[in-house]
Amino acid sequence: MKKIYLFIALLFCVTILSAQDEEVVYHDSDEEFKTIFGGKKVGGYGGLGFGYSRIEDKHAIIFDARGGVILGHSFAIGFGGVGFINDYEYNQALNREVSLVGGYGGIFAEPIIFPRSRVHLSFPVLFGIGGAAYTSWVKDDRDYTQENDVEETAVFMIIEPGVELEFNLTKFMRLAGFFSYRYTSDLDLTSVKPDALVNYTIGARFKFGKF
Asked: How many domains does the chain have?
């Protein structure tokens, strides 16, 4: 938890510093004042991403979507959702192939450093809640069908800080390579380790909008 608090403190400092790069001076009745996020400049974006992770010590595929508003070019806030599935493996007790699948979502905050540069950094953090399901399946070769069952389910809380290297492809499109790390509450599943979801994700994300 100390690492999380340290990251949040660093995130706050980065937000202030990045906002100073975008500050705008307004004049009202011959008095000057400066705003943290650049006054009335408001944009927004929607994004789709995919990535690779390790879940329960197995290969996993991650896919996500997010959307939010951008304040003063330098700070984004909105909602995001993530889905995941890891490799199937044989469970002798169930006599079936099993896998851990699920998803999570919540609010994200994203300071953006030097957003006008062709290549720049951002530091998104997602806070939310999710669900995981321990699923099994068996294939019937006689009629080429597949039977799936949910063996157990669990709910968890999550915080996922990350860093993105963004490329301004056009005025309305960005490509970002990202690295993030999931911290979750313990999973209450008898067949899965409590910290099965705690791990990194690396991937790419496309963003479309008014930046």
From this structure: 1
Residue 123 CA, distance from chain mean position? 11
Q: Are 132 and 187 in contact (CB under 8 A)?
A: yes
pTM of the model: 0.79
- 60 part of a folded domain: yes
User: What is the distance between the alpha carbons of residues 147 and 165, in angstroms, rounded to a whole number?
Assistant: 42
Q: What is the mean pLDDT of each run of 10 residues along the chain (211 residues)?
A: 46 44 41 48 95 96 97 95 94 88 98 95 98 86 68 97 97 96 96 95 97 92
CB 124 within 8 A of CB 162: yes
The domain in which residue 156 lies consists of 40-210
CATH number at residue 164: 2.40.160.20
Are the beta carbons of 165 and 127 closer than 8 angstroms?
A: no
Burial class (CB in 10 A: 0-12, 13-18, 19+), 173: middle
Count of beta carbons in the 10 Å neighbourhood of residue 59:
11
* CA 51 to chain CA centroid, nearest Å: 10
Alpha helices in the chain (DSSP H): 2-21
